[in-house]
User: Fold these one by one.
Assistant:
Number 1:
Amino acid sequence: MEADNIFHELLQRLEQYHRDLTEGSFVRYHEPEELKAILRLDRPEGRGDWTELMAWVEQYLAYAVKTANPGYLNRMWAGANLPSIIGEMVTAVTNTSACTYETAPVSTLMEQYLLRELLELVGFSHGVGQMTTGSSNANMIVMMAARNNACAQSKTVGLFGQARLVAFVNRDAHYSMDRAAAILGIGTEQLIKVATDDHGRMDPQALEQALLRVEQEGGVPFFVAATAGTTVRGAYDPLEPLLALRERFGFWLHVDGAWGGAAVLSDRLRTRFLPLLEQADSFTLDFHKMLGTALMCNVLLFNNRPDILRDICSAGDESYIFRQGADGEIRDLGTQSLQCGRRVDALKLFLDWKFYGLEGFGRRVEGYLELCRYAEQRILELEELEMVVPRESFNLCFRHLPPPGVSAEEFTIALRNRMQQLERGLVGTGYVDGQLALRLLVTNQNVDQGAIDTFLDNILLTGRELIAQPPAE
Ligand SMILES: *Cc1c(COP(=O)(O)O)cnc(C)c1O
């Protein structure tokens, strides 16, 4: 094998891998020690041998988790859209950084184009946006913007001697909020976890009480994040009462739509799940989750503050790298970013956007919700299974009933692990009000009603086996 024909050789293997994705099991399961022994990563290097290189690739593919397989139901993303995979391949071959126009002219224009389209779709006027490395970082950038909004000197003098800044989130909010509070000098103790109602939505009355208490104690409520689709339950925090509280308290209102924000792509679902989104201060949406763009693909949007990213991100002497357009317009997206090198994420999203269009994406999200409804119906019909809480949107939190004398939690863990080890399927788990649930998410284009039936059949089979032969301690 030579460098000259390496793409030919590679593409054959990738094509085969891609064709087989939905066949058989989602993985060849091995414990780390076994896999280490198989892979033999410490074989000699430095031989410059393309045949040997291709053998490494084959090995990688052989033991990779086939995330597009319908048995893979574990995470908020699965597989990837073929247009975006093509985008990723082109991105890799052209290898550049999307921080300056001069190194990434087409991707810069594509990113600006996509952001304008999405700002318009969401209804943010005079806004600005950015493709970031995911919603965890998007949440942090937004919290940083809110911090600077509440305390303009924080960028230069830090938080020394400043009033105590306090942030508020749904108690089921994503853990990236805690990290953001830790990184930004807010401190996790200043991240108030607000109680939820019985749907898992942030309780506006509990938020109001917490806001009043913080103000009485001399704190500054600077940031509230609504979650649009909580990670475990899929609850949507209600924006209307939160917007009313923003009028009174003057905080920044962010919407973390990493998962459930995808509803914005369907008029019908937007009306149902995201009313008044256009009035929020910022919004993050992961295209790499329900929408299937290759990892990582995030869009972060700001309302009404065209200069905010430049204001918070620019620091130090950047003159060696960034140029302004003749009209003073920003042409280097790196000036508005926390990174220096930026991976090109725009091409893959652009190709997806052109290939499926808004309507295609909207139909997909609606179809997923339909499948969730179907799965819920089936779970309710099967007497071995029960919903741990009713479905709010796209997430199904359920479990298999344990046999007498076994705790539901222990049984859920044993069932999940056995499913994985026997290569029957990989499903997530999460705690709802202290109870461990299997969390089924439909976010895979290869999952249809038949795949859901197969998955549930496998759960019943595994449950029967475990009950017949309880796990040895
Ligand atoms: C997935 C998720 C995140 C984190 O997003 P990444 O892109 O994985 O960093 C944040 N918030 C919510 C609600 C999520 O579901």
Number 2:
Amino acid sequence: MPNDLPTDPIASQLKQIRDRIAEACLRANRAPGSVTLVAVSKTHPGAAVEAALACGQMVFGENRVQEAEGKFPALRPAWPALRLHLIGALQTNKAREAVRVADVIESLDRPKLAVALRDAMAREGRQPRLLVQVNTGDEPQKAGIARAEADDFIRACREEHGLPVTGLMCIPPAEADPRPHFALLAGMAARHGLAVLSMGMSGDFEAAIAEGATHIRVGTAIFGGRPAPA
Ligand SMILES: *Cc1c(COP(=O)(O)O)cnc(C)c1O
């Protein structure tokens, strides 16, 4: 019996997200190709990544260097278009591994890390693109450069350290309306002439697209729930 309905939940959830991205772009008068979906596969096995790859999803996000090293290098030979974004807080002593495994590092958020990444890139001869993570809600427990320090930090990363910063990333406070945070990040990127805006997750990516997101990071809505962090 012919049946075009995807039976794999990852395939059908990916299709739903793509449809919602296209609709959000239409509402915002944006080209559907102007938003890149970063499929956040953290905690999910390599088989889940392969299921997404088989549906044409090529861009992934992981928040831990070690987990990324365990999943992605093995997939690259078969999938040369695969791109990996590191989206989690990064320790300076992991900078070298991060530069080796990632195509984009979205969590540049302090001067020490800028120096560590500069040195790691020089040693590895590899230059992943970088996004500066801004703590738009100035939450003490959260990663990201403080709002008031962000402009100077972005300038220093590019001009003093010569780092390949292409954009900004944020994670708005959990309970807040994310729109003003997305708008703030978009304004900051425009001031610095930065093209990439990584903002919006499973619960708020449509609002992020309305505010100009070029990259949305979606995990749960594609791969399902994750175990609560220990
Ligand atoms: C886990 C994670 C996401 C994905 O969150 P979902 O709500 O599962 O879509 C996005 N961005 C960052 C930085 C994350 O750590």
